[in-house]
Amino acid sequence: MRVAMIGTGYVGLVSGACFSEFGHAVVCVDKNPARIEALEQGEIPIFEPGLEDLVTRNVKAGRLSFTQDITAAMAEADAVFIAVGTPSRRGDGEADLSYVYAAAEEIARAMTRPTLVVTKSTVPVGTGREVERIIRATRPDADFEVASNPEFLREGAAIEDFMRPDRVVCGAESERARELLRALYRPLYINETPILFTSLETAELIKYAANAFLATKITFINEIADLCERTNVNVQDVAKGIGLDGRIGGKFLHAGPGYGGSCFPKDTQALVATGRKHGAPLRIVETVVDINEVRKRRMADKILAALDGNAKGKTIAVLGLTFKPETDDMRDSPSLVIVPALQQAGATIRVYDPEGLHEARKLLGGMVECKDAYDTCNGADAAVIITEWNQFRALDLVRLKSLLRKPLLVDLRNIYKPHEMAAAGFTYHSVGRPPVAPKA
Length: 440
Ligand code: NAD
Known about the structure:
The chain has 3 domains: 2-198, Rossmann fold, CATH 3.40.50.720; 208-290, N-(1-d-carboxylethyl)-l-norvaline Dehydrogenase, domain 2 (Orthogonal Bundle); 295-429, NAD(P)-binding Rossmann-like Domain (Rossmann fold, 3-Layer(aba) Sandwich). The relative contact order is 0.09. It is of the alpha/beta class. It has helices at residues 10-21, 33-40, 51-60, 70-74, 98-110, 127-138, 158-163, 175-184, 186-190, 200-231, 235-243, 264-277, 283-306, 335-344, 357-363, 373-377, 397-403, 418-423, and strands at 2-6, 25-29, 64-67, 79-82, 115-119, 144-148, 168-171, 195-198, 315-319, 348-352, 368-369, 382-385, 408-411, 427-429. Bound molecules: nicotinamide-adenine-dinucleotide.
């Protein structure tokens, strides 16, 4: 099959590359000339494990190409995917659909043959119908249909998630649309991956409901972690104890600094806005949004408390800035709240992130960038782990202790064991576990 992918960001590029790996001919389109020029020169504009190999292989095989020209991309396309951004609209938290609607108009103008228009962007219930209306209004003669195929991939594991998803959700209302989507996902279909066919609106809502549920699970365990800290209980034991219950499940029960990233924060807010608009307020999700917002600031307070409430003139070594490991994505990362709060309290921030520094630089100022975790800790009064990159999981504690002015570690990801840190001579604070002092 021939596919055009509109938007070549995290989702568009990964989906386009994976569809080409399935054997389809894919042309990825983007408005950003720098992005397309980089891709044409074999450079991958985002960090995603395995993506460079996948793109190179499929470009070489002649199945994957890049352009700024939507008309050329759609000339022979059977299906065109909309994978542009849907950020939060300033002020009201609703999804900003201007990129989606602009793409719909461009698609309408470029359409020369029967085409299935598939929304992969995360869009509020009702958006597919509006896309349909826009295309029809722009091109009353066009032969097209609109489907919804929300994407569930996680950054950092995006290729694996696309190639081996738990399920594929397709909002498609004619047999012709369902056939096309089945053909597109054929390698998964024959592997018996569940492919769920629904109405357009149902597919749109499934995506938001899934993200809101996961955000709720994270927020739930974060609040339990707060209670653990006051009752001398280890939240990891609680998470295990409840997660082994098949009705609950152990995933997304890691206490931490609050969820971030390009999806959960904006999608929970957009779902709240949709609920209000339709007179069906989602009070659980509203609370989740509020708690998560406050939590990031509270993590800064937790770090300051570990420094006896006084950060003036002190140096803090920050390990990790991205919202999670294995990505360079800084969107809504807890570090964007924590680092400025520490700076405001008078601290100097030394920092290292394996992939996020080039993005972080645009969003955070005044940090001393270091070359690795040890360099970051050199002469610092405390170290703080914000992102659980693998390379921070097995640091040489003897070396770390010798570099730090004081052996104080605040671990917002619980990647060390309290008793081991105490034995290594550290004062150690984590999330939802009792703090420990150095063992004499
Ligand atoms: P992104 O910002 O990384 O990429 C969007 C791209 O679309 C940009 O490169 C932009 O230049 C391009 N673009 C915008 N308008 C265009 C147009 N008219 N023509 C061509 N290109 C255009 O965004 P993303 O993270 O890939 O997210 C895309 C959508 O997928 C969002 O709705 C998001 O919520 C959803 N989603 C994201 C993830 C994720 O992990 N990032 C996971 C699942 C779903």
